[in-house]
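Lab notebook, bench 4. Still working through the backlog of constructs that have no structural model yet. Next entry is a single chain of 89 residues. Request: give me the structure tokens for it.
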Amino acid sequence: RDLLLTQKLILQPYFEVDLILKDKAANAKKTGISHAAFGLETRYEINKKVMPFVDFGYGYEKGLKQTAWQTGTDSEHGWYYGAGLTLKF
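Model written out:
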């Protein structure tokens, strides 16, 4: 859902979750929530084809399960930010 601050300045909140129910691969992750993130993307529509944006949010990433070929990793979480340019053709 877009929130219009002005006609060209738009704030878009987001929430995304990756859920693993069953994984028997050699580099298997644990079952359950493997990735979750929520944040805000603020973009300015110069026109409908060119839109620079700034994104910031909080993310969680579950570590990998230890197998015979690798060592396990811990879970990671924290704040992140970024900037970019969306081009639509």
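Notes after review: The mean pLDDT is 83. The radius of gyration is 18 Å. Flag for follow-up if needed.
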